[in-house]
C-alpha cells in the first residue's frame, strides 16, 4: 500500500498534481506614498502646486485598478465542474486493485466489561439509526424474482437517497473520535511537557480521512435543512460524550471506534454487493467525483463503485488501528503505526494486533527506517 507524504525530502506526489487550482485573492498593499515617513510638503508650496494634482490623479487611478482587480480575483468556492488538486498534508492510503478486494467483514468478541459496554453502545446506536431511517435489511427469499422497485417497496434494499443518507450520517459521526482523541492527547503532551509517542498523528489522520469521505459523498447531493439539524444535534451530543469518556478511559474509546468501524465496513460491503447486483441503477455508471479521483489517486475513468471500494478499505484500516490501539497502554506504549501501517493483506483479514504483535511490528518498521537511512548516507 502506497502513501503520499513527505519522507526524507522526497515528495511522493505526481508533478501534475502538485499545484492547487483554487483561485486565490491577490494581496492588497499600501502605497509607498501612504506609508512614507517623510514630512508632508506644506500647502501652497511650489512642489504641491506642480506635483499635487498629478499625484492625486495617480492615487485615483491606482485605487480604481485595485478595486477592479479585487472584483476579478475575489476568493470564492470553486464551481462544481472545477477540479481541486494538490498534495495532502497528512498520510492517506492509495490502494492497489488487490488490496481493495482483500477486505473481510470481521468482528472482535467483547470479553471485558468495558469492551462489552462499548459494543452494546455501538449496537444501540445502530438500532436507533436503523429505526429512524426505516432500514430493515430483510433477507431476500430464496428464488425470488422481484424487481428493484418491489425489493425497495418491501424493505429489502435501499434506494440511492437512502444509501446517501446513511453514509452521510455515518461519516459525520465517524469524523469526531479522531479529532477529539488527537486534541486531548495534544493538550496532554503540552501540559505534561513530554512526547506523545506518535498517537496524535494517527488520530488526526483518521479524522481527516473520515472528513474526506464526507466531502466526497456531499458532491452527490445537497442535504436538506432538517438533515443538517439532525447532524448538528447528534454531533454535539456525541462530541461531548466521547470527550469526557476519553478523559476517563482512552482504551474504551478506541474499542468503541473499532466496533463502530466494524459496522462501517459491513455497511459499505452491503452497498457494494447491491451496486454490483444492479440494485442501485442510479449509481451503475456514475463517474467518481473529482475530489475522490485526486485524493485516492484513482484512474480518470473511475466510477462511484471504485470510490466505495476505497472508502471501505479506509474503514478497514480504522477498524484495525483502533482495535490495536485499544490493546495497548495509552500512557506507556508507542503507537506502532506512527511511521508505517501494514498492508491490506494484514488489515483486511486480521482484526487487530495484540500488544506483543504491535511491539514486534514497530521494531520491524524501525529496522527498515534505519536501513533506509544507511542507504541514503552511502
TrEMBL record:
Name the UniProt key words of this record, in alphabetical order: Electron transport, Iron, Membrane, Metal-binding, Mitochondrion, Mitochondrion inner membrane, Oxidoreductase, Respiratory chain, Transit peptide, Transmembrane, Transmembrane helix, Transport
What does the entry's cofactor note say about binding and number? Binds 2 iron ions per subunit.
Q: Which spans are transmembrane here?
A: 163-184, 225-248
Output the Gene Ontology terms for molecular function. Answer: alternative oxidase activity; metal ion binding
Q: Keyword Mitochondrion, does the record have it?
A: yes
Q: To which species is this protein native? A: Mycena chlorophos
Please report the name of this protein according to its UniProt entry: Alternative oxidase
Just give the chief location class.
mitochondrion
Per the similarity annotation, which family is this? Belongs to the alternative oxidase family.
Q: Subcellular location, in the record's words? A: Mitochondrion inner membrane
**What is its cofactor?**
Fe cation
Q: What does this protein do?
A: Catalyzes cyanide-resistant oxygen consumption. May increase respiration when the cytochrome respiratory pathway is restricted, or in response to low temperatures.
Q: Which PANTHER family does this entry report, sorted A to Z?
A: ALTERNATIVE OXIDASE (PTHR31803)
**What InterPro entries would the database entry show?**
AOX, AOX_sf
Which Gene Ontology BP annotations are present? alternative respiration
Write out the GO cellular component annotations. mitochondrial inner membrane; respiratory chain complex
* E.C. numbers: 1.-.-.-
Q: Which Pfam families match?
A: AOX
Amino acid at each position: 500500500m502506497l502513501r503520499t507524504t513527505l519522507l526524507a525530502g522526497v515528495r511522493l506526489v505526481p508533478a501534475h498534481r502538485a499545484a492547487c487550482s483554487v483561485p486565490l485573492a491577490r494581496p492588497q498593499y499600501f502605497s509607498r506614498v501612504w506609508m512614507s515617513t517623510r514630512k508632508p510638503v506644506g500647502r501652497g508650496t511650489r512642489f504641491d502646486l506642480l506635483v499635487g494634482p498629478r499625484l492625486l490623479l495617480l492615487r485615483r487611478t491606482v485605487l480604481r485598478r485595485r478595486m477592479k482587480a479585487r472584483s476579478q480575483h475575489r476568493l470564492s468556492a470553486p464551481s462544481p465542474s472545477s477540479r481541486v488538486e494538490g498534495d495532502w498534508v497528512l498520510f492517506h492510503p492509495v490502494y492497489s486493485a488487490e488490496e481493495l478486494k482483500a477486505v473481510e467483514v470481521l468482528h472482535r468478541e467483547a470479553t471485558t466489561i468495558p469492551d462489552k459496554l462499548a459494543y452494546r453502545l455501538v449496537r444501540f446506536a445502530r438500532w436507533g439509526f436503523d429505526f429512524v431511517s426505516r432500514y430493515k435489511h430483510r433477507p431476500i427469499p430464496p428464488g425470488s424474482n422481484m424487481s428493484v422497485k418491489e425489493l425497495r417497496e418491501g424493505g429489502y434494499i435501499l434506494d440511492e437517497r437512502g444509501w446517501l443518507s446513511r453514509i452521510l450520517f455515518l461519516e459525520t459521526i465517524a469524523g469526531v473520535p479522531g479529532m477529539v482523541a488527537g486534541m486531548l492527547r495534544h493538550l496532554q503532551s503540552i501540559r505534561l511537557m513530554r512526547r506523545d509517542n506518535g498517537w496524535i498523528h494517527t488520530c488526526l489522520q483518521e479524522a481527516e480521512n473520515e472528513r474526506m469521505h464526507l466531502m466526497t459523498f456531499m458532491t452527490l447531493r445537497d442535504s436538506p435543512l432538517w438533515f443538517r439539524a439532525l447532524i448538528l444535534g447528534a454531533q454535539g451530543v456525541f462530541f461531548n460524550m466521547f470527550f469526557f469518556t476519553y478523559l476517563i478511559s482512552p482504551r474504551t474509546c478506541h474499542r468503541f471506534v473499532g466496533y463502530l468501524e466494524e459496522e462501517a465496513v459491513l455497511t459499505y460491503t452491503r452497498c457494494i454487493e447491491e451496486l454490483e447486483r444492479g440494485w442501485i441503477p442510479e449509481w451503475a455508471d456514475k463517474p467518481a467525483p473529482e475530489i475522490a479521483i485526486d485524493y485516492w489517486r484513482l484512474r480518470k475513468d473511475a466510477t462511484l463503485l471504485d470510490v466505495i471500494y476505497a472508502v471501505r478499505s479506509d474503514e478497514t484500516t480504522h477498524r484495525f488501528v483502533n482495535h490495536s490501539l485499544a490493546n495497548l497502554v495509552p500512557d506507556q506504549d508507542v503507537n506502532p503505526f506512527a511511521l508505517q501501517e501494514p498492508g491490506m493483506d494484514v488489515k483486511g483479514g486480521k482484526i487487530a494486533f495484540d500488544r506483543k504483535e504491535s511491539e514486534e511490528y514497530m521494531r520491524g518498521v524501525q529496522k527498515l527506517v534505519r536501513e533506509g537511512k544507511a542507504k541514503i548516507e552511502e
